[in-house]
Amino acid sequence: MSNLANEPELLSRVEDGIAILTLNRPAARNALSFSLMGELLEAFARLDPAVRVVVIAGNGPAFCSGHDLREFRAAPDRHRYEQVFDRCTALMLAIRRCPRPVIAQVHGVATAAGCQLVAGCDLAVAESGARFATPGVDIGLFCSTPAVALSRAVGRKPAMEMLLTGEPIDAEEARRIGLINRVVPPSSLAPEVMALARQIATKSSAVIAMGKEAFYRQAELGLEEAYRHASGVMVRNLLEADADEGIDAFLGKRKPEWRG
């Protein structure tokens, strides 16, 4: 199902140093078409240096319903399938490697690759009525790629239960297992996300970028190697101008003036 004529599949705006990327395929419940994933990739590649935080939201009744199954049936071809999943992988890696924190603003449902998108973001805030699922097993298509992000965001047992049953979980359960950070009333969703983004945007962008990279890198390592890597990052961090400024500001009981 395509968008209305001349309607962009992705809306983008910047407010207070926060880039808000809005999936705009409401009639298709914001399914991740090949072109929409391409637009998201381009948006991450084009982020203005002044942007400090990225928010991913969705228009219409759902955050994101996953891949566009109509596209799969329109071109049932191995090469096309490979192109779709290569692009999806590139998108998830772009989110992970983005030096800015990425927040998912979730309403309605986040299913299959939509759930993957939530799990792949650094933070996620959901309205109380949101639902999350990896229901591919119900249509003979195990959610193997969503499992990559999901299994890194929650424990293995909760991830496998979602993957094997396809049953949706509510927002409170998603928060309990670590898929999302906060559950808020629907009317408070956008304001809460922006408040969180603005709070993060007050920090040093250079330090945040260094810390985000280190967080994910150490998680891939064994314990001793993780400590060695993190220690090296701490040393580099202490040599940064913003660390000098932050420590001096703390000791001088004043607000820091970050240089970024």
Automatic annotation (TrEMBL):
GO terms for molecular function: hydro-lyase activity. Keywords: Fatty acid metabolism, Lipid metabolism, Transit peptide. This is Enoyl-CoA hydratase domain-containing protein 3, mitochondrial. It comes from Hypericibacter terrae. Belongs to the enoyl-CoA hydratase/isomerase family. The lineage of its organism: Bacteria, Pseudomonadati, Pseudomonadota, Alphaproteobacteria, Rhodospirillales. GO terms for biological process: fatty acid metabolic process. May play a role in fatty acid biosynthesis and insulin sensitivity. The keyword Lipid metabolism applies. The keyword Iron-sulfur does not apply.
